[in-house]
Each structure stands twice: as structure tokens, then as C-alpha cells.
Amino acid sequence: MVDRDRNDDRDDSDEESASEERNESSSGSRSGGGSDRPRRSYQRGRPRSRIKACRFCTDKSKVIDYKDIDLMYSLTNPRGRILPRRKTGTCAKHQRQVSLAIKRARHMAMLPYSAQHVRQTNS
């Protein structure tokens, strides 16, 4: 209610100057200067990769099994860590199954918990 009363007390010249101040503050520091510069067609930062499809959803014959060591190695990095979904492209449902299978394979000593060079330096 108080804001409405303030807005009603303004005349047209106050509204124009307030809108100019908002435009200057929004385009000022981030764009690096004048607004007459054309925008860049490319994006800065990390390049965006295409959305990967889950390999287990697309190929129904692939089964996540802790005994399939080649598959388990392909889903871990060289240090032995489980790769995240954004790297492998697996969906949430299959990522949970993958992590469980990798943990089972580690427990059964089919997969190492860490890389060889890490185990040698810490002992």
C-alpha cells in the first residue's frame, strides 16, 4: 500500500528518470561498456556438449552386472572413482544400478577401490 502511494505522488518526469537509471544500471558493468556493441554469437566458458542418451535405455539387451568387469571399468575413471551421470550420459535409474554394481565388484575384489599408483604411494 505504501509503495502505491509513493508511485501516485510521482509525476511523469520522475518516472522517465527512474526508468533511465534502471536501464543504465542493468546494462552497465556486465556488458563492458556501450550497448551499441553487437552481442557475441559464441558462448563463453565451458563448451556445451550434446545431451547423451543412456546406453542402457537405448540398448535394452545391455544388463548392468557387477561381474561384467569391462563395463565396470568403462564407468570408472583411471583413479577408480565412479563417473558421474553428466560424463557417462546414464539416466538416474541406471546410474543407481551402476554405482551399486561397482560397489559390489569392489567388495568382491573384482575392481580396485583406488588406482595402483595411489595404493603404492600411501603404503
Describe this structure as you would to a colleague.
50% of the residues lie in helices and 0% in strands. The chain is built from 7 helices and no strands. It is flat and about 65 Å long. The chain is an all-alpha fold and 123 residues long. The chain starts with a helix and ends with a helix. The protein has helices at 2-9, 12-27, 55-58, 69-74, 85-88, 92-107, 116-122. It has 2 domains: 1-34; 55-122, Irregular (30s Ribosomal Protein S18), CATH 4.10.640.
What keywords describe this structure?
123 residues, 30s Ribosomal Protein S18, 7 helices, single chain, 2 domains, mainly alpha
Short structural summary:
The protein contains seven helices and no strands. The protein has 123 residues and is mainly α.
Q: What Rg is obtained from the alpha carbons, in whole angstroms?
A: 28 Å
The coarse overall form would be: flat
The ordered H/E elements are HHHHHHH
Question: Helix amount, in percent?
Answer: 40-55%
CATH topology descriptor of the largest domain: 30s Ribosomal Protein S18
What's the number of structural domains? 2
SSE-based structural type: mainly alpha
Distance between the termini: 70 Å
Please state the average pLDDT score. Answer: 78
Can you identify the CATH class of the largest domain?
A: Few Secondary Structures
Number of distinct helices: 7
Number of DSSP E strands: 0
Biggest sheet, in brief?
Answer: none
Low-confidence stretches: none
How much of the sequence lies in strands comes to: under 5%
CATH H-level superfamily of the largest domain? Ribosomal protein S18
CATH architecture of the largest domain: Irregular
